[in-house]
Amino acid sequence: MVSHEAMGAPAAGPEHGGPDGGADILYDFSTNANPLPLPPGLQRALAEADRRHYPDPHYQALCARLAEHHAVAPARVLPTAGSSEAIRRLTLLAHLQGLGTAWVPSPGYGDYAAAAEALGLRVQGWPAPATLLDGLDRAASPALVWLNEPCNPTGVSLPTHFWQTLAEIAWQRGHWLVLDRAYEPLRLEGSDPITGSVAARCWQLWSPNKALGLTGIRAGYVLAPVEAADDLGPRLRALAPSWVLSAEGVQMLLAWWGEEVQGWLQESRRTLEQWRTMQRNLLADLGWAQRATVTPFWLARPPLPARLLGLRLQQLRAAGIKLRDATSFGLPGWVRVATRPPEAQRALALVWHASRWKGEEGDTP
Ligand SMILES: Cc1ncc(COP(=O)(O)O)c(C=O)c1O
């Protein structure tokens, strides 16, 4: 048997917020999941998930429901075990189709690069829209292009003219545009800048578990581009295991676009907007620099040298409060914070003050 050491141990994988194997997290600012309690209808639907039988292996009723909502042909709807699984599967398909480069937003969700690296694709980070447009226009061959609107971890939204130009270049050059919609349902201001005709020609990844605060349910779906419905769509489906989606996942997705859930989500966005204002004021009072955002999460920089921030985050974690260190996003000294209820905000302020070291005040980043 060949040991991992002999083969070279596999990489630890991308870093994520949320549970980390340590003590219970009391106040979790480190994941982007909606913290509000679920609507009763959805709780009931989940409790009624039929765990005694396999789901329909073709998920026909689910695909029909989702297709109706998006006004697309059911063949374009491909269930996934969440967008992380979709990212791996789409990267595999791109690799099998001969694409050798993946463009990933930088900073951006770590799974895009991890999936590409695992299959030996060249990873090209795009820190700014102009870098991406220029790079794609000059590319010698079609590439896989990851887009996240609004973007994690920045909470930034790009303008409609960027999307139009990007789409034109991609169509001329044969690039695959993949649009990760994870946070569209949690957009707190402005509106979706992507027009229907641009969206129809992208692979779109939907994963409502973040907006619903149900990240333990691993379920989502891909909408294949119109022109991929007959060829690449079925190929992507063929790469999935049987019953890729669990019974709870089916229930969650069936309920997702329904009136009760969408009404609840609209209310949640209003509450999150108020809580976000409170939280930004509080962090400003603590002296944290903060970037603008359209989502309930954003990048912030506490008034500490980067080398000390890790220690402070460990102290917070020991007190049951978790923030997402942004070092793995290439941003040492920064954290990504998600909007949390007033009680959690008070706890954060208290522990932050209590864990201050002597002489720290004058210590600037
Ligand atoms: C941008 C983005 N896409 C996808 C995911 C993962 O989604 P899922 O839980 O559906 O696998 C995350 C989770 O944090 C994310 O931030």
Question: Count the strands?
Answer: 13
**CATH homologous superfamily classification of the largest domain:** Type I PLP-dependent aspartate aminotransferase-like (Major domain)
Strand content: 5-15%
- CATH second-level architecture of the largest domain: 3-Layer(aba) Sandwich
Report on this model:
- The structure is a single chain.
- The N terminus is likely disordered.
- Helix 2 runs antiparallel to helix 11 and helix 6 runs parallel beside helix 7.
- The chain is 41% helix and 13% strand.
- The chain contains 14 helices and 13 strands.
- The strands form three sheets. Strands 2-8-7-6-5-3-4 form a seven-stranded mixed beta sheet, with helices on both faces. Strands 9-10-13-12 form a four-stranded antiparallel beta sheet, covered by helices on one side.
- It folds into two domains: 110 residues, Aspartate Aminotransferase, domain 1 (Alpha-Beta Complex), CATH 3.90.1150.10; 220 residues, Type I PLP-dependent aspartate aminotransferase-like (Major domain) (Aspartate Aminotransferase, domain 2).
- The structure holds pyridoxal-5'-phosphate (PLP).
- Pyridoxal-5'-phosphate binds next to helix 4.
- The site of pyridoxal-5'-phosphate (PLP) has 12 residues, from helix 4.
